[in-house]
Amino acid sequence: MRDCHYSRLLKRLGAKNVLGVDLSPAMIEAARHEESQNALGIVYEVGDAATMAVFGSFDVATAAFLFNYAEDEQTLAQMFRSVAANVIPDGRLVAVVPNPDFINGRGDTLPYGFFLEKIGEGPMRLRVRMTFVGEEKFRIEFTQWSRHAYEDALAQAGFADAQWTPFAVSKEGIERYGQNFWDAILANPKSVVLSARKKPA
Ligand SMILES: C[S@@+](CC[C@H](N)C(=O)[O-])C[C@H]1O[C@@H](n2cnc3c(N)ncnc32)[C@H](O)[C@@H]1O
């Protein structure tokens, strides 16, 4: 997955103005390079979602595996507040987050090329190590926040109507691998979509 995957997907799906923000200058450099090779009219800026400036008033904010980087509840709440400051009243936040109910350490994700294990635990969170076991072997660590932590942070930032939407397997995925291949991950999904509406002031 390229670092700018989602911003480019959303623009191609018809979003009018797209701004991509990332903490990592290297990620933004790579995204700008992609944009220079294949211009879609997307603007990329370096920014920390926990302290971010107001870049504009957007109908929708998306965050793909961002909130799992928050080190503590205060940072998580700040990230949601920064996002809210960039969204119009009644606008939406759509985030992909590690599934709060995911059961770690079972090995049921090995057919998909990775293994997840709990390496720590705190209030409203688990610390998780993800090991990729394909040709390219590497590890990352992230926080699996509880539903309660997300819903608290959403409410503090002025979001309402939180919805948790499970992933479904695409027609192409079923055609390519067969339905049975997906049974394990559908029974213990690794990720989930969290969306909410910003309440008018
Ligand atoms: C899994 S990637 C997301 C993919 C990317 N947004 C895309 O459209 O494909 C998660 C990204 O979050 C970024 N990140 C981590 N902490 C952040 C923070 N505090 N503010 C902004 N970005 C952050 C990381 O640098 C990383 O590139």
In summary, what is this structure?
This protein has 201 residues and is of the alpha/beta class. The chain has helices at 5-12, 25-37, 73-85, 147-156, 171-177, 179-187, and strands spanning 19-22, 43-46, 58-64, 87-98, 114-122, 125-132, 138-145, 159-166, 191-198.
Q: What does it look like?
A:
- The chain is an alpha/beta fold and 201 residues long.
- It has one domain (48-198): 3-Layer(aba) Sandwich (Rossmann fold).
- 30% of the residues lie in helices and 34% in strands.
- The chain has six helices and nine strands, in the order αβαββαββββαβααβ.
- The protein has helices at residues 5-12, 25-37, 73-85, 147-156, 171-177, 179-187, and strands at 19-22, 43-46, 58-64, 87-98, 114-122, 125-132, 138-145, 159-166, 191-198.
- The strands form three sheets. The chain has a four-stranded mixed β-sheet. Strands 5-6-7 form a three-stranded antiparallel β-sheet. A two-stranded parallel ribbon has the order 1-2.
- β5 (114-122) and β6 form a beta hairpin.
- The model has no long low-confidence stretch (mean pLDDT 95).
- S-adenosylmethionine is lined by residues 1, 3-7, 22-24, 27, 48-50, 64-66, 69.
